[in-house]
User: Fold these one by one.
Assistant:
Number 1:
Amino acid sequence: MAAKTLIIDGKEVSAEEGATVLQVARDNGVKLPTLCHLEGVYDVGACRLCLVEIAGTTKLLPACTTKISEGMRITTDSDRLRKYRRMTIELLFAERNHVCAVCVSNGHCELQTLAYSLGMDHVRYDYIFPKWNVDLTHRMFGMDHNRCILCTRCVRVCWHIEGAGTKNVAGRGATSKIISDLNQPWGDSESCTECGKCVMACPTGALFNKGTTTGEMEHDRDKLEFIVNAREKQQWLP
């Protein structure tokens, strides 16, 4: 592929055509906050935390789904971007019931870590306090909809890494939720292979292993990336 030259935060860099702004930024040591991005599966731009400024447009664009172009001038850190990212994190906390002190992923949660890094010490918006249930019908895993941020990582790994197609999204807006099969209890699912990839992919405490303590809830994303890379390189073919 042809190489493209662009400017990121005043630094001239080059990258292959077809690369995303997020890929180029990370390849050049620029850290961008993300929650819905997961190495090994396609991006959907759901969380809007990786928004960047691009010269020539007044819109903020998601770095994970925006492809680079020749001469593109990108700003990844500004007062405007910090304001939007802080607002986004606060809205995520206000939308559902994220009480870190009693969450199974306390200390191993990407949402919690980002809130710290963005300086969120309080939420300026009214909490919605929705009444979401906890699905404990599966013999190995649990799903706490109170902790879900609808990043759809679990959906994408279930469909495109495991190939089971168990997880999906139902509803619209604030009433959206992750479902199993045709919105039945997870334990009744006939398509679930019990692989646990959805649990590995979850950035919060929404998906968890039953019987796991807080100290053991660190999710291993490297396993998912290893599987994808091995398939692409055809390492498992005879």
Number 2:
Amino acid sequence: MSTASTVLGVDVGSNSARAVAVDRDGRVVATGGGEYAGAEAWAEGRAEPAAWLAAVVDAVRETGVRPAAICVGGQSPTTVPMDGSPAVTVLHPAGATLGFERQHYAQREFLGIDGVLQIYDWIMNRLGATIRQSRWPGDVTLNGYGRRAATGQVIGHTDGAFGLPADIPLVAGAQDAFFAFWAGGVDTPGRAMDPGGRTGGLAVAVECPQERGADAMRSAAIGVDIVGGPVSSHGLIMEWLAGLTGRPIPELLDRAALIPPGADGVRVLPYLEGERAPRWNRELRAEITGLGSGHGPGHIARAALEGTAYGLRHIAESLRVPGLDVLVCAGSPARSELWCQIKADVLDVPVEVPEETDLAAYGAALSAGAGAGWWPVPGDAKSGSWPRPAGRVVKPTPRQVYRDGYRRFVESGDAAERRLRQLEASK
């Protein structure tokens, strides 16, 4: 067991890599980041693994710590050729409407090669780990992606490459969503999370039934499952609106805060990339309705924020889980007080906002800590066995305008699906 005072987790996100150094009490003591050089020229759904690797190294070095262990997690499903040629990311259409396992296989088929790894396993191999396939408890083993290693298991040591110290234990990772759920304490029934980022979604912890449903995921805790689903474009729609209007997202958020709840009748369906849960229809597209000459960018921004909250409520109601006590918000959307308040009001639950909003990186640090012997590995302890970052709570203010807005949101989505069916039938 190392005597180092920190462990280090890294999240390979859609736009950048983020590192978080955590001490034995779960306190964040250092952070670091790295950008993907040349990413603006990448084709949609493709990426250069070398840029990911360089960003991870930059993020680790920026923390300035020599940790007891390092763990890398990230976007998934994403498939990297063993030789480091261009990867296929979660944003690629190959297998996009399928489950995680089949999407991986569709990505591998698109690449047309056998030697592949998950993104974080490829990075860890380049840092010195053996070729392994990191898998969360309950995950199926992917054929052709290397020999299985459990999240929290040591799979090698740094070899001194890329300017990093040698002999630091490297620990098997997991996909970013699982790490975010772990860090946010979504291992106690009634706790839920929107992991944020460019996509987002809703995950709710429930008591594990005697027969686990096909869509249920295992939480880090014994006897607790996670149900829910991802969405396609919640953070992305604000990025798109910023590009469309030429106004940065902080300015759009400021303008949205000046608009009353309900956005003066403007409504947004945030389906820029189709929608996953609960509609699972890639052909859907975003809609903006209710616009008049008196509306401006602030109205559209406010309606977009409300539309993403309606999307979370749509998932929650489709799950029919027995109670949702608190929603943990993570990722860049959690940095907006307005956005968190809208989610609290629309779902009528308190919203918990951690001080460290990159919970995927924090969860990777928990895995590193498990590899260092500080905490149990996921799936091997009861709820509350791991630290989580401190945070604040946003209390809900239920509003009739949001109840009406949610009903119209669902009706609009239903109408959009009917139009798609009619169009298909007419061909």
Number 3:
Amino acid sequence: MSIKQVYITNTSVFLPNDPVSNDEMESYLGFINDKPSKSRKIVLRNNGIKTRYYALAKGGKPTHTNAEMTALAIKSLFAGNPEKIKDLQLLSCGTSSPDQMMPSHGVMTHGWLPETNAIEVVSPSGVCCAGMHAFKYAYLAVRAGDVELAVATGSERFSGSLVSNAFEEETQKLTELKKNPYISFDKEFLRWMLSDGAAAFLLSDTKNETGLSLRVDWIEGVSYANEMEVCMYMASEKQPDGTLKSYLDFTPEEIAERSILSIKQDIKLLSDNIVPLGGRKIKEIFERRGLTTEDVDYFLPHISSDFFKSKIFDLMALYGKGIPYEKWFINLTTLGNVGACSAYLMVHELFHSGKLKKGERILLLVPESGRFSYMYAMMTVC
């Protein structure tokens, strides 16, 4: 069996409803304790996000499931030739916000695609790296010759866990106990950071006959969970010793009262470690592969906030001459932080921008604060 080249021959996105401005956010997510948030403007000033998308109508009513959005993105890949979807052999779907714990997000997405055949489906989980893990599985399957045509996706529907009623029981309980009737910042912080959407890559062992393709040169990942405690988590509560207590070990009343099912993040642990740990692996990759930052024409780092932009810039300067900002391509400002989907959204916008020229090289960097994991990829325009 010969090793195949792998190409991204098309990309697509599905962004639900209309873009939501900063001032409109609480008309979709709702007010906690019937009062405007005091932290919203502070968080938004630091993260630099101006608009984002929610799979919600005003008032918080859901409009799409995660699986439905993912399927709509996949269908867009084949809009020019709908019959070609029958040639699909593998569906690899990554998310950190599936609609249910079982069945898997991948098979639920497949269920929205009756026009496909019976195919292999996988569902990497995790946080932001889940979409990249889906990408790598599809890449390796094509590269090994197991399949000739695969789709990888990244998607999120965070909004369902950000609406105010997800926190009402906790704030009511705190009021009854005469404590501060506001949710803790590690929970509220992420309400102003996260958004919804889905995107897809079409991977083939044959590049496009006309137009551009992206040859996938390599994809690598690393986890530092062996030395780092949990930073971002959901359906659990962090204990004083750094371990997680599962939602399975709380009573139904405690789950509601303490908003156990909400997403939380240890902000200090994040800010102290996310950039330095990411730099450790990229340094090793560059040295092993004989690369310098001058080999990069476009740098696509997934960042959750503008706060980290200068820190990553300074870090990359340690490994050559750095990557000047004119080589960076980020759409955080207009699309928000869409977790496992964000890398796909950047690649999609760049791929369809008309800017790319054959021979240019694109470096992807995706950090995940769950327990500090990272994914990196290099692609060449051809």
Number 4:
Amino acid sequence: MLFEAEFSEFVSGAVMIILATSDATGRTAIGRGVGAWPGSNIDQLIVAISARQWPRVIADLTPGGPLAVTAADPASYETYQFKGNACMISANGVDVKRSGAAAGRMAARLHSLGISDEMSAEWLMTEDVQLAQMRVEGVWKQTPGPGAGVKVDR
């Protein structure tokens, strides 16, 4: 599936990112991403994850496991879920800075909505950033209301 410009702009903006994985036995894990952006191929999504905060999510993706990435704008509730398989790749200095900038944008958005900086800091940890590289196989609209849960076909 093409990771189109519309989704690239959305996930690169001030959105909360929730991750869901499962291990080889089917046991699930959840975590938060701290920044996302399109990959080098048109069907790739890169998600920054704090290995310190979410080690199980990272362990599940080490062999290239399934990943669901839900990105939600906390001001409008516009939400999309991206599904596919992912593997962990190394983060470089540019990636770490990009993740920090994403965390800063999200913290500012949450602050404007009345969420304290202390609370958002728990959600937006950037210590030991690692990257999940996902091949997007499907996109679902998850914005509450009519059409929630509908697969986006392009």
